[in-house]
Amino acid sequence: MSFILEARNLKKSFDGVVALSDASFTLNQGEICGLVGANGSGKTTFARIISGLIKPDAGQLYLYGSQINLKSHLEAEKLAISMVHQNLSLVPEMTVWENINLGREIITPLGILKKEEALIRAEAAIQELKVNISLYDKVSQLAPSDQQLLEIVKALSRNPKILILDEPTASLGFKQVEILFEKLIQLKKDQVSVIFISHRIWEITRICDRLVAFRNGKTVGEVDFQQQPREERIIIPLITGKKENEDEKGIHEKRPYRNFDTRQVILEVDSLSKRDKLHNISFKIREGEVIGLGGLNGQGQEEILFILSGYLRKTSGKIKINNQEIIIKNPSQAIERGIFLVPGDRQKEGLFLNHNVFTNLVYPQVAQKKQKFILPLKELRQTVNTTIQKISLVPPDPRKLVSHLSGGNQQKVVIGKWLSLSPRILLLNDPTKGVDIETRKNLYKIIADLSNQGVSVLLYASDNEELIANCDRVLIVFEGQIVEEICGDRICEENLIASSLRVQ
User: Fold this and answer.
1) Are strands 425-429 and 339-342 parallel, antiparallel or unpaired?
2) Which residues contact 202 (CB under 8 A, 6 or more apart)?
3) Spatial distance between the Cα atoms of 239 and 203, rounded to a whole number of angstroms
4) Element holding 6 (H helix, E strand)
5) Type and span of the H or E element at 47
6) Rounded Cα distance, 93 and 408, in Å
7) CB of 20 within 8 A of CB of 40?
8) What whole-number distance in Å separates Cα of residue 186 and Cα of residue 188?
9) Using CA atoms, how far apart are residues 406 and 136, in angstroms rounded to an integer?
């Protein structure tokens, strides 16, 4: 069979760390092929090779049966290969229309930009995905979901024949996912070939014709959905390397009901408002309780977390801890009161990427205690080693640069840096976005352990299954207001979706 794209025995290492050891892959014309695997399995490295961003150490690439040697992403784009990056490639201080046209500006013979034509091109591009943003907005001003959609729009505007999507739905709500899927089906009809990388297995089974699995840098299997059922039980063993009966408990199994009525109220929010964002938000969290913030993306969930963590100032309302009203004007004041935020963008907001694991884990502890002159290094090393064990870091090496860790292990470090400070209230902003199944299990266990130790957790998740698996109650946020509280056995996919859409 002649494939539109074929990769044979690709190998790639970074500073002695093997990312790909024997990766092979084929793609048919007009096919949506899923690419699955744990964090660190080599999926993103493979995608970056296909898109010309990095060169393999060994192996061959074939396009329409002819061997190619991509020297840059510009060469890939000339061959109609476009990529949607997990870590967005947008320029934050440029506008929407400038980002869409970047690198392929329409100019006159004198080198003057044809702005009107560029605006027309950009407007047509954003209409393809029904994105409700202004062409003149700076990317830095957009919500994460809109930035993700713009990244997709930018790739589609190149009119690719091969489209690589690396975790494209990680920041999207389910309505936005549906719009994207409609577009992918249309692209398939137009004979565009798609490589779809995702940790959300239901997305793979829903949209893909076939999938290829990577594990430890190698291709370990393939599932053709025309011949095999679209079932999670077939896919997960390929990802984990475990047999079906080795791990019978589902990752998203519903949390057993727990009654917190007799527990102490730790956090109380009363009539919290933020101009144009939040309106009279009120709720209580008891000791050890895990409360979810549900609803469509962009309804005010993140603003609640930002106000409680000191990143945003409220317009009105009260915040109480242990029945005492507190004022939070900045993150330092929140941290002093034991309120810690795990942010939504780990690389930009949660880590020092060019420093090692040790520095990232001890920095909050050292900064809060205002250590001077001589650091208690022996004590700090012991604390870091204990934290590394708690978060199941892979590899368990405090000297490892954080930038060299997989996305899932980076997220473990973001959470781990707060553990030594004994949090009272942990705010989680979509903590498992873009991480694999095994890492999700580890993060869910960390949340459960903290809850059992009496830490109160407020969790925003764009994935309803995450709310189902972790939360004792879910508060549905719609247009800046809490419109419903869902508890106990009522926490299920059907009820969460119906409430988010305000379906009676």
Assistant:
1) parallel
2) 232
3) 15
4) strand 5-14
5) helix 43-50
6) 28
7) no
8) 5
9) 35
Cα–Cα dist 154/159, whole Å: 10
293 vs 176, more confident: 293
Whether 126 and 45 have beta carbons less than 8 Å apart is answered as no
Reported as a single tens digit per residue, the pLDDT across 30-87 is: 999 999 987 778 899 999 999 999 999 999 999 999 999 999 999 999 999 999 988 7
CB proximity list for 280: less than 8 A, separation 6 or greater? 271, 272, 273, 317, 481
36/33 Cα distance (integer angstroms): 10
CA–CA distance from 250 to each of 22, 232, 245, 393, 440 (Å)? 30, 10, 11, 22, 12
Q: Residue type for 423, please? A: P
Instruction: List, in order, residues 6 or more apart from 126 with CB less than 8 Å away.
Output: 96, 100, 133, 135, 150, 153
Rounded CA separation 380/362 (Å): 7
Smallest Cα–Cα separation from 49: which of 39, 60, 64?
A: 60
pLDDT tens-place string over residues 441-490: 888 999 999 999 999 999 999 888 889 999 999 999 988 999 999 998 89
Helix (H), strand (E) at residue 5? strand 5-14
Question: What number is the average pLDDT over the span 335-356?
Answer: 90
**pLDDT exceeds 60 at position 250:** no
Report the pLDDT value the prediction gives residue 476, as an integer from 0 to 100. Answer: 95
What is residue 488's DSSP assignment? Answer: G
Structure tokens that stand for 380 in this block? 């700090």
Q: CB within 8 A of 392, min separation 6: which ones?
A: 412, 442
Which are the contacts of 65, defined by CB distance < 8 A and separation ≥ 6? 2, 3
Q: Is the dihedral of CA 53, 59, 61, 66 positive or negative?
A: positive
Q: How far apart are the first and last CA of the chain?
A: 52
Q: What's the whole-number mean pLDDT along residues 364-392?
A: 82
Question: How far out from the chain centre does Cα 232 lie?
Answer: 21
Give the Cβ contact number of residue 322 at 10 Å.
Answer: 13
The amino acid that residue 146 corresponds to is D
Q: What does the pLDDT average to over 156-167? A: 94
